[in-house]
Amino acid sequence: INKDWEKLMVRAAEVKFVVASCGNELLRTSLPVLYSELEKCQKSLEGYLEQKRSKFPRFYFVSNPVLLLILSQGSDPQQMQPYYEKVFDSIDRVVHSKQDKLQIIEIQSIIGPVKETISLSKAVKSIGNIEEWLGELEKEMQLSLKKLCESASSECVAQPLRQFVTKNCGQFALLGLQILWTVQCQEALTKAKYNKHIMVETNKTQLHTLQDLSSWCLEDLGSKMNRIKVETLVTIQVHQRDVFADLTKRFREKKLTDANDFEWLK
User: In angstroms, rounded to a whole number, what is the distance separating the alpha carbons of residues 153 and 239?
Assistant: First the structure.
């Protein structure tokens, strides 16, 4: 198709006149054939890309031109670096092992000069068809984050809040704050029958947590990413404080009695 098209363009360049070029009988017979062949190529390409997308569904969010570029880089995993952000929501780059360049050991999210790095619990081999090892990377990402989630769920209660937030990435700092709030609320509601002051005390604790988080915003947090993390925690804690303040009000009005009440469970 390309060679025939080049021949037609060469002849058109030689004639130099549009009407004379278009009046060529060869042009009238060749163009419909070329168009038909291009349609076949397009259908074949669509079928090929659909096969790749069915094996790695995240490719459905990538345009055909970009997907072709990604597939063309499959033999060299390092060339995939600019395209991770198009396939994964919060992965901008991956880190390969210095000993084995084919092994992916860390994933990174980047905002400006700052990087948030998550170590994979098991290295992923970037070898074979690109859609296959990207699928393995996705699974290992999920497993690694699950393990970190399990660790964060226990640390958020045991560690001071500042230490916990500093240690963990934004996702788990937020999760830890929500778990801590839920534990405190559940405990207060469970003991409310025997301790009339615990709801008010817990409400004060929630307010104190909000004040602590707000005070961090006045400090130099070191990076834009840390500031975004803390500001998000403040926003969530404002909502949580308001929810528990409403629960405390309902408890005073005797519209809420314990942790099994629908007002809490909903």
Answer: 20
Residue holding tokens 């393990």?
147
**Beta 114-125 vs 93-96: how paired, if at all?**
unpaired
SS3 for 112? coil
Q: Which of 181, 191, 184, 156 is nearest to 171 (CA)?
A: 156
> Which ranges in the chain belong to alpha helices (H)?
2-15, 18-22, 25-55, 64-72, 84-87, 130-158, 161-167, 170-191, 198-216, 224-252, 262-265
Instruction: Kindly state the tokens that stand for 57.
Output: 């569904």
User: What are the b/e assignments for 92-107, b being 16+ CB within 10 Å?
Assistant: bbbbbeeeeeebbbbb
Q: What is the pLDDT of residues 25-67, one digit of tens each?
A: 767 777 788 888 888 888 888 888 898 899 999 989 888 888 8
- 206 residue type, one letter: Q
Mind giving me the DSSP string for 160-173? -HHHHHHHS-HHHH
Q: Contact, 251 vs 243, CB < 8 A? A: no
Sole residue written with tokens 């559940």: 186
The reported pTM is 0.72
- As a whole number of Å, the CA-based R_g of the chain is 30
Distance of alpha carbon 247 from alpha carbon 33, whole angstroms = 74
Tell me: the pLDDT tens digits for 89-137? Answer: 888 889 988 888 888 999 888 877 778 888 898 998 888 888 888 899 9
Residue 76 has φ and ψ, to the nearest 5°, of: -130, 95
Burial grade of 25 (CB within 10 A; 0-12, 13-18, 19 or more): exposed
Contacts of 263 (CB under 8 A, 6+ apart): 247, 250, 255, 256
67 close to 46: Cβ distance less than 8 angstroms: no
